Amino acid sequence: MNENQMASHKSAQVGDREIAITRLLDAPRELAFEAWTKPEHLSKWWGPQGFTSTFQRFELHPGGTWEFVMHSPEGVDFPNTNVFTEIVRPERIVFRHAVFPHFVATAAFEEQGGKTKLTYRTVFEETEAVFEQVKTYAAPGAEQTLDRLEALLAHLASK
User: Fold this and answer.
1) pTM here?
2) Residue 132 belongs to domain with CATH number
């Protein structure tokens, strides 16, 4: 991604069983990484607009489990289980979503002049036909989730 594209602040691309979102976050890399790795922060922004999350387990290490339930505004519960496969502070977090829809997610954090370039990529293990259906809610849901991350970071940075 060149500097002109980053100037637009955010971008999203949906490919063959992959969703990639890039954001230039107005926060230092360490703070952005902390927002992803501390349950007290993560629980405030993880999930689409209007959703809340209840964490049951959060073991931040390779092989560790992150179990939680996302609660929709309509009262529907969505149990989730992720297994961390790689943690490189403050550069990268990789986890596998172990329930439907199955995917591997990578959050990469790059320092850019006091801000953070976040690249969040999910590669789905489902068939193309299933991915065609999943992407209709997964792509906008991921965008809304990262909007909520940006709002939390603005709040944390103002303290």
Assistant:
1) 0.89
2) 3.30.530.20
